[in-house]
Amino acid sequence: MNIFLANQWGLLGLLAIPAIIAIHCFQRQARPLLISTLFLMPKPQSESRSGRRWEFWRNSWAFWMQILAALLLTILLAQPRIIKDDSTAQVAIVLDASASMSAFRDSATQTVNHILGDTSRLASNTTWLVRDSLATSQRLYHGEDANLLRQSLEAWQPTHGTHDAASALRAAQTAVGREGRVIFITDEANPALESLAEVVTVGEPLANVGFTGVRTDQRDGQPIWQAIIRNYSDTPQQRKWWIEGTSGTQTEPQNLSIPANGVRRVGGAFPEEESAISLRLEGDAFTFDDHAPIVHPRPRPVAYIIRGEQSFAEWIRKAVARIPGIQYGAVDGQTDLGVHSLTSPERLTTLPQPYAIAFAKQGADVGSLSAPQSFVEAHPLVEGLTFNGLVIQREDELPLPPSDNAVVLVWSANEPLIYLESTAQGRVLVFRFDPAQSNLDRLPAYVILLNRFIATARQQRRSPWRENFETHQALPLPSNPIQPYTIQHNQTEPLPLKTWNAPTKPTLFTVIHGGDDLLQGAARFADIREADLRQARTAYDLTTGNNKVIRQNLEDDLLTPLWALLLIGTMLANYHFTGRNT
Q1: Is 411 helix (H, G, I), strand (E, B) or coil?
Q2: How many other C-beta atoms are found inside a 10 Å radius of the C-beta of residue 217?
Q3: Inside any domain, residue 402
Q4: Same domain, yes or no, for 323 and 421?
Q5: Partners of 201 in the β-ladder
Q6: Are 548 and 563 in a shared domain?
Q7: Is residue 396 domain-resident?
Q8: In which band, very low, low, confident or very high, does the pLDDT at 547 lie, cut at 50, 70 and 90?
Q9: Per-residue confidence (pLDDT) for residue 346, from 0 to 100
Q10: Region 118-142: what's the mean pLDDT?
């Protein structure tokens, strides 16, 4: 039988027992007074000339009745309950996956142990579910073994940026059922989540200094880098910083003073014959922004050709030439993109390049000017763009009509104006008007659309390149690889690339394909919201949830009326014996 005290504060009633003993130890000792007669004298007031003295209490019924009354009152105040033998509880613990929690990982683990001790005694059998706050994450543990649950916490990696935990909390609630509990452990309270879970916060305000941004550039043909170091505290901070090279060299640490809530800029040139460096900062509790690896970017080349008249080629080169890493002709015997001026839609499906851009070709002074009101579809290529303000010269019917399988990107009234056409080789971006007879080159949306489409062609190029990424960022690797990709962090052994994302922690890395280095990258942490630890607080209160489980799984003490009757009887007995002895 498992007995539970619904009100543990009621045990303070036991303090009445030493008080009762102390009272009974203080006795007045009367001194004998001998007289010869009584009827001639008034009744005297008895006084003790010796005053109060301490002595062991006298064994009496009144004493034991008062002790018994204190015990019965304690039982009534503590509210003993019996846990049902068949009672069960479903508890989901959701751990915040934000990187700021890495500074309070030990506190979070201790809090989980505290939760286990607090909630496991409320039911005969408790089923635990542990997961993190990412909507796409898997469970860390699901079962009834508390020891295995503690071991599963080693797989918890709080490395992500700021994100919404609401989806994970709803999924956890669905998993444990309507009557189950969801406890969210985080370092900063969010009132919006308190309706979805019982929120427990860990941590304390900490001063943090870290790298917030880096950039690379060229100066006099020399690659250079710049970085910003920020102080996330209300007091000035002192830190040391240095540079590490890929060959193991390291500069002498330099002292840096950062004012309260201020920033400092550092910069320099890449060492000769090295395309990557690592900036290091003296460590603090939050280590993610103390390391900023940088590579000097080198984009993948995109080879293109132009098929059209001389005037059309000159018009196209004005926009294409501004895009970095693009070359005319072929690179490594491969041409990635073709730009065509077409009169017939039949040629769209026979273009030899895997990616192509096609413009309609019209005769001079054909048709009338038109400024169509454009409508943009929900597609990544045109997201956030607008083509209002476009002026074209058109006939009654626009040329190059789309096929049934085409994806329309921009509409002009009820006519497709710009669309994607699928071919046996790849995709074609089709403009149904002559660019030379329009103001297309004056629209920012055109330049952005062109860059986005060329980026898709660049992604399929299997040439080595260098790039800087944020941690967890998707890597634009060529699809359908001939062999699996592997990833190597610094000088470690290559491992299979399970997800096509940058590493979870700041580091230099290399993606390898077929034994050759395909991508040399640098992953750095860039979410400044997670680096500010001044709002971290500790708050632990599961009273409401515990009381709910108590009401569900505990039986009422059927002896409560008996304890109350015994208390009343004891008080009456005490009154009886006390009155009889006076």
Answers
A1: strand
A2: 12
A3: yes
A4: yes
A5: 186, 539
A6: no
A7: yes
A8: confident
A9: 79
A10: 89
| DSSP structure string for 444-465 | HHHHHHHHHHHHHHHHT--S-E
Token reading at 472: 């967890």
Which residue is associated with the tokens 């009584």? 38
Nearest C-alpha neighbor of 385 from the set 394, 397, 396, 376: 376
Query: Based on C-alpha coordinates, what's the Rg of the chain?
Result: 40
Residue 228 counted as domain residue: yes
Question: 180 and 91 in contact (C-beta within 8 Å)?
Answer: yes
Of the candidate ranges 110-119, 206-215, 355-364, 572-581, the one whose mean pLDDT is the lowest: 572-581
Report whether 393 contacts 362 (CB < 8 A).
Answer: yes
Per DSSP (E only), the strands in 480-528 are: 485-489, 495-496, 507-513, 516-524
Residues 182 and 226 in one domain: no
Q: Are residues 311 and 356 in the same domain?
A: yes
Domain of 345, CATH number, reads 3.40.50.880
| 183, 94 Cβ separation under 8 angstroms | yes
Which of the listed residues 415, 430, 459 is the one where a domain comes to its end?
A: 459
Summary mean pLDDT of the chain = 85
- The whole-number average pLDDT for the span 116-123 is 85
Instruction: Assess whether pLDDT exceeds 70 at residue 278.
Output: yes
Number of domains in the chain: 5
Please indicate, yes or no, whether residues 317 and 334 belong to a single structural domain of this protein: yes
Boundary-marking domain end, from 441, 459, 477: 459
How far, in Å, CA of 459 to CA of 64, rounded?
Answer: 89
Same domain, 308 and 438: yes
Residues 47-101: tens digit of each pLDDT: 444 444 555 556 677 778 778 888 888 877 777 767 676 778 899 999 999 999 9
Q: Is residue 143 part of a domain?
A: yes
Domain residues for the domain of 545 are: 88-205+535-555
DSSP per-residue codes, 157-226 = ---B-S---HHHHHHHHHHH-TT-EEEEEESS--GGGTTTSEEEE------EEEEEEEEEEEETTEEEEE
CATH code (residue 169): 3.40.50.410
Q: How confident is the model over 435-483, as pLDDT tens digits?
A: 888 888 888 999 899 999 998 888 888 889 999 999 999 999 988 888 8
Q: Is the pLDDT of residue 486 over 70?
A: yes
Answer whether 69's CB lies under 8 Å from 567's CB. yes
* pLDDT at 51 (0 to 100): 47
Same domain for 453 and 319? yes
Give the pair of three-digit tokens for residue 454.
């060329």
β-strand pairing of 427-431 with 355-360 = parallel
For the record, the structure tokens of 364 come out as 């001079």
Q: What is the CATH number of the domain that holds 223?
A: 2.60.40.10
DSSP-derived secondary structure for 378-390: S-TTTTT---TT-
413 and 327 in a common domain = yes
The answer to which of 75-79, 428-432, 499-503, 511-515 has the lowest mean pLDDT is 75-79
